[in-house]
Specification:
By secondary structure, the chain is mostly loops. The chain is about 10% helix and about 5% strand. The chain contains one helix and two strands, in the order E-E-H. Strands 1-2 form a two-stranded antiparallel ribbon. Strand 1 (about 45) and strand 2 form a beta hairpin. The radius of gyration is 23 Å and the shape is rod-shaped. The chain starts with about 45 loop residues before the first strand and ends with a helix. The mean pLDDT is about 80.
């Protein structure tokens, strides 16, 4: 390894970034369920449905509950 002190670097540098525990993906990226308003990963337009639904609302609409 080369000596980087002549370039003004003495220790390895950590990449700049946010140190908070927030996920990298904002919550607004996920769609909202049109029935209950839940926003999350489980909400999507499912087969046979043209609107975004969460798992529970999809099952209720399809009569699976």
């Amino acid at each position: 390894m080369t000596d980087l002190t002549e370039f003004g670097v003495s220790d390895p540098q950590e990449p700049a970034g946010d140190d908070d525990d927030e996920p990298d993906e904002p919550a607004s990226q996920w769609p909202a369920c049109i029935d209950c308003g839940y926003v999350g990963r489980e909400v999507k337009s499912r087969l046979g449905q043209s609107v975004p639904l969460c798992t529970a609302c999809f099952a209720e609409r399809e009569g699976l509950l």
